[in-house]
Each structure stands twice: as structure tokens, then as C-alpha cells.
Amino acid sequence: MVEILVLYYSRFGAVKQMANLTARGVESVDGVQSCVRTVAPVSTVTEATEDAIPSHGDPYVSLDDLQRCAGLALGSPTRFGNMAAPLKYFFDTTGGLWLSGALCDKPAAVFTSSSLIHGGQESTLLSMMLPLFHHGMILLGLPYSEAALHRTETGGTPYGASHVAGANSDRPISEEERELCIALGRRLANLAATVATRQAD
Asked: Which among 6, 104, 139, 161 has most CB atoms closer than 10 A?
């Protein structure tokens, strides 16, 4: 089986929902399975630590998860137009994988959620792409052949899936946003399966 790592950080649950929808798209492709993981929050108090296993929710990601995957879907809420610190912190620990080229030529895609429609979604998606480019990954987005990208009045960009959560972070994922998350996962899975087949030949 080809395995896609769906890695996310979520504060209020929207990005977690997007991760699950993206994983659904991944698993709609024959021979491909998803592995959903999250990252621990970071603290401004340097002595604060998290248990190795979360008390609830998805397991924390390991470097082995990243090395083993055939593709990566990466999700984060917007933080002033940038990825959230916990995801950045995790990628700051991946120097060994970069040195070995472990992620080279693996497909990757990104998704995000913000409170406001102009909350920095596209710059956040681009910020998540930067470490992936440095790792030599193959980045893909959402083409305008996806009909929901034309219809959406909330989230959805050619750079990746997105969601507008509202000022109180309680706005449900729209039908178009849902379709685009699933489409992103499916597109990522198809490319990862193609790459894996060619590498096996």
C-alpha cells in the first residue's frame, strides 16, 4: 500500500476536520491509505513539555512517519499569514531527513483555515510550501478544472484547500470547501501512486 501522511495542527478543530476530509480523498484512490498525525503545541515557557502520547485525538507525528510516507498533506491554521509555530517547530527538526534526501521527489500538498476570508490563507499555504521545496518535494495545488474552485464564496485556492472559520472559529465547512479538501487528497494520492509505480519499475 502507498501511504500518505496527513499532518496537521489544529486549535479549534477546523483544520482537523479538513485533515479528515483530505484523508478521505486519499483513501478514495485504490492502493493508497492515509496516516493522520498531528504535532504537539509549543509553549513560550521553555520548561513546559507535552507527554509523548496525546491524551486524546490523533497521535503525534514522528520523523519515521515523515520518512516512510509516499506523499504528504500538510495543514495549519493561519498565524498572521504564516504557518502555526508547532508545525514550524516540527520541520525545524527535520534537518537529518534533508541531509539524506529522504523526502526528495515525494508529492506534497497544503491546506489551511483562517477566521476571516482575508486572513492570510494564500500566504500561509505558501509558507508551508517553503520547507517542502527545500526537502525536494513535488508540490501540487488545486487546478481550476475543479468546479468547486469556481463556485466557492468562502475558502478554496489554487495553492491548496482552505476554509473560512469565522470570527468565533465556529463556521461549518462549506460544501465547496469540503469538495476541495477531498479533491486535494485524491489528487495527491493519484500522483503518489504514479510516482511509486514508476520507482518500482
From this structure: 161
The answer to the question of residue 115 being in a domain is yes
Grid cell in block for residue 12 = 479549534
Domain-located, residue 46: no
What is the tens place of the pLDDT at every residue in 88-130? 999 999 999 999 999 999 999 999 999 999 999 999 999 999 9
- pTM check: above 0.90: yes
Question: Under a CB-based contact definition with an 8 Å cutoff, are residues 92 and 64 in contact?
Answer: no
The answer to whether 139 and 132 are in contact (CB under 8 A) is yes
Provide the number of structural domains found in the chain. Answer: 1
Indicate the SS3 state at residue 190: helix
Distance of CA 48 to CAs 8, 12, 44, 85, 91, Å? Answer: 21, 21, 8, 15, 19
Q: Is residue 165 part of a domain?
A: yes
Place of cell 468562502: 154
Output phi, psi for 118, to 5 deg: -110, 40
Place of cell 469540503: 178
Tell me the CATH number at 161.
3.40.50.360
Amino acid at 81: G
Give yes or no for a contact between 180 and 155, defined as CB atoms under 8 angstroms apart. yes
Rg (CA), the chain: 16
Unique residue bearing C-alpha cell 491546506:
111
